[in-house]
Specification:
Layout lengths: L2 E9 L2 E6 L4 E6 L1 H5 L9 E5 L7 E6 L5 E2 L4 E2 L3 E6 L7 H13 L3 E6 L7 H10 L5 E4 L8 H8 L3 E6 L5 H9 L8 E2 L4 E2 L7 E5 L2 E5 L22 H4 L19 H7 L5 H19 L4
Parallel strand pairs: 3-5, 8-9, 8-11, 9-10, 11-15
Antiparallel strand pairs: 1-2, 1-4, 2-3, 4-5, 6-7, 12-13, 14-15
Helix pairs in contact: 2-8
Length: 293
């Protein structure tokens, strides 16, 4: 009998699926998935046939996805929890790339500053820079418990995916509110960089929450196929001003009478975030021009 469920893990061609009753099944994907170029992903909602006795069952169909990430390969994220910390040093360009990804996929972004007890000013600075971008910033500490209950409340009802640099404490946070003993890594004080500890993607169900503990987002890049002029559409603070620019297709880079540039000069928009936008714009122009190379 065909059932519906969700893929919570995939390894070596085998997929662990949990059905609507919370029962787990080990399944294989039918050959037609390979022929059709379809790869089942963690987070996918699926239809499947359970196996008999010791035999594995079969994935029959992947239901329509609401969002898709290729690197790392996960599906149906509804909230991206971008995690930063005072240590390792925040990678602000990665933050902006992840925000573009979230907006492009219609995923709700949440910016979480872990280890907030080490630097109370970092969440304040991020709130000042990203309020206009319609990004909620939450200060938390896995060590002291600060903000953990509020984070759990914000996670309710979403398929949550933690993303960010290695060493910012993503697995530690997940352990904190799931009670699961996930492998965690320390920050190297010699190089101030985190060690990657999560090796594969797992969808964790616990106490009514759904959360993906996944590697891969620390080296996230924007897709080559994104046209440069579409980058601006994923900056909410720019979208609100675009109608005031002289040119209809204004890239907010060096154009005259640009409302975004005027707002940056006036201190109404964060100048450092805009400088990173210009950097990403330049990178996308280069990728776009080389897309057939």
């Amino acid at each position: 009998m065909i059932q519906t469920g969700q893929i919570i893990e995939g390894r070596g061609g085998l997929y662990t699926v949990v059905n609507d009753a919370g029962e787990s099944f080990i399944l294989r994907a039918k050959n037609r998935f390979r022929r059709e170029g379809i790869t089942p992903l963690v987070g996918d909602k699926v239809r499947f046939t359970p196996g008999q006795l010791e035999e594995h069952g079969w994935l029959e169909e992947i239901l329509p996805r609401t969002s898709l990430s290729i690197r790392p390969p996960v599906a149906n994220i509804s909230q991206l929890i971008i995690t930063m910390a005072p240590e390792p040093m925040p990678d602000m360009l990665l933050l902006d790339k992840l925000l573009v990804f979230a907006r492009e996929q219609h995923i709700l972004p949440l910016l979480v500053v872990n280890k907030a007890d080490l630097d109370e000013n970092l969440p304040v600075r991020l709130k000042a820079a990203y309020t206009a971008a319609d990004v909620k910033v939450l200060a938390v500490s896995a060590m002291t418990g600060q903000g953990i209950e509020q984070l759990k409340t914000l996670m309710a009802g979403h398929l949550n995916c933690f993303a960010g640099q290695s060493g910012v404490g993503k697995s530690t946070l997940i352990s904190k509110f799931t009670g699961l003993d996930l492998e965690t890594g320390e920050v190297s004080h010699r190089i101030r960089r985190g060690r990657q500890t999560t090796r594969h993607t797992t969808l964790i169900h616990h106490d009514g929450l759904q959360v993906l503990d996944t590697p891969g987002f620390s080296l996230f890049e924007l897709p080559q196929e994104m046209e440069p002029e579409h980058l601006r559409e994923h900056y909410p603070e720019y979208v609100n001003l675009q109608s005031q620019c002289r040119f209809e297709v204004c890239l907010h880079d060096q154009e005259p009478a640009c409302a975004v540039l005027d707002a940056v000069r006036a201190g109404e928009l964060d100048a450092e975030r805009h400088a990173r936008y210009q950097q990403l714009l330049s990178l996308q122009k280069e990728k776009w021009s080389n897309r057939y190379a």
